[in-house]
Specification:
The protein has helices at about 15-25, 40-60, 70-85, 100-110, 130-135, 160-170, 240-255, 260-280, 305-310, 335, 340-345, 360-380; strands spanning about 1-5, 65-70, 90-95, 115-120, 140-145, 175-180, 195-200, 210-215, 285, 295-300, 315, 350. By secondary structure, it is α/β, with parallel strands linked by helices.
């Protein structure tokens, strides 16, 4: 099996699976962290240790880390929570049409509630038009919502330039950053990045589905999304799960260790595939400076779903568009916003890699692709 769909989800680390198995069978690790007895104390210490490990990886404070069920919940909490709590700071939000649906759907709802949402256009490289951004920011701008690395193309946000523009126009405005595809692949130092809110997902870094993280910078106030028992300082009620917290922490620690070596290994795969696919008249949709973990390519003569299922016969797994949209949309709204015509978009396939993919897999992918082309040429 060759799995090139790591932007959709990743295989859990064996260490994560072992941790969960052993924890669930343990005699003393399953207590409620909110209980006052010994089992509760053990669970609480385990939970706090996980938060501290995550905070260390992100170079932030333990009190700035909140656990959620997924990055979608983190995005909903951050964006909605900030705008509802801070109405006096402005009612305008700035974003792009290439954001994840977890952001775009929330922005649509806030617009229906009276907020003004300004969408900045993006170029063929997927990056926001910075002149438009500068003109859009004004005194009513409360929040800027952007994605660090686009999940369909790998386009990397020019974050430093955006922060400089924002600070020159309205220093009070806050930035929410979707870090789902960048965590473990690019350095993330939350104490220095210049963002106030950020979301992360466990199952994109070889943890399990069902655990996410929300970063809220100290001093930033947002309304909670889930109410109840007041856990996590009232930010996200519900019984805390030391097991999920530790699973995220373990996966994050593994992802951020030897990150430069992993990046170089994946870049070798990406560079090889770019070269070989262009030789076969494929069109590379990802920009040249995209994160190498994502490669979006359009295969001439093959609609995306056709190519996906052809590869699937060889047990090679890829994506067409984002997994969150693939069952309801034929064309990628991300590629459309980048100015790519629908014919190319209809033939677009996303290959997404993890640090566990190999050059041997890349070579086999090209071999099987040649077999697919040969088979279809015989049928014509």
């Amino acid at each position: 099996m060759i799995y090139f769909d790591n932007s959709a989800t990743t295989k859990p680390l064996p260490e994560v699976a072992k941790l969960m198995y052993e924890d669930m069978l343990s005699e003393d690790s399953w207590g409620n962290p909110g209980s006052l007895h010994e089992l509760g104390t053990i669970a609480y210490k385990s939970y706090i240790n996980a938060k501290e490990d995550i905070a260390k990886c992100f170079s932030c404070r333990e009190q700035e880390i909140y656990f959620t069920s997924c990055a979608t919940e983190s995005a909903n909490t951050a964006i909605t929570g900030y705008m509802r709590r801070n109405k006096r700071l402005g009612r305008t939000i700035i974003s792009t049409k290439t954001e994840h649906k977890a952001t775009l759907e929330v922005l649509e709802r806030l617009a229906s509630e009276g907020c003004t949402v300004k969408y900045i256009s993006v170029g063929r490289d997927g990056k926001p038009n910075l002149d438009e951004l500068s003109n859009a920011i004004d005194g009513d701008t409360a929040l800027l919502c952007f994605t660090h690395v686009n999940n369909e193309t790998g386009s990397i946000l020019p974050l430093n330039e955006i922060i400089d523009i924002k600070n020159s126009k309205n220093r009070q405005a806050v930035i929410y950053l979707d870090c789902v595809q960048s965590v473990g692949k690019l350095p993330i130092n939350l104490s220095k990045m210049g963002v106030e809110l950020a979301s992360f997902s466990g199952h994109k870094i070889h943890s399990i589905k069902g655990n996410g993280v929300l970063y809220v910078k100290n001093g930033v106030k947002i309304d909670p999304f889930i109410l109840g028992g007041g856990q996590q300082n009232g930010m996200r009620s519900g019984t805390e799960s030391p097991l999920l917290a530790r699973s995220f922490a373990l996966a994050l620690q593994d992802a951020t260790s030897n990150m430069d070596d992993h990046y170089a290994s994946v870049k070798e795969i990406n560079d090889y595939l770019r070269t070989e696919l262009v030789k076969r008249k494929a069109i590379i949709m990802s920009p040249d400076d995209a994160l190498p973990y994502v490669l979006n390519v359009s295969f001439d003569g093959f609609e995306s779903e056709t190519m996906l299922h052809c590869l699937e016969r060889y047990k090679i797994y890829v994506s067409t568009i984002s997994a969150c949209s693939s069952k309801s949309k034929k064309y990628s709204y991300v590629l459309e916003a980048m100015g790519i015509d629908r014919k190319q978009s209809a033939n677009a396939v996303r290959l997404s890699f993890s640090r566990f993919n190999t050059m041997d897999e890349a070579r086999e992918f090209v071999e099987k692709l040649d077999e697919i082309y040969a088979l279809f040429s015989l049928r014509k």
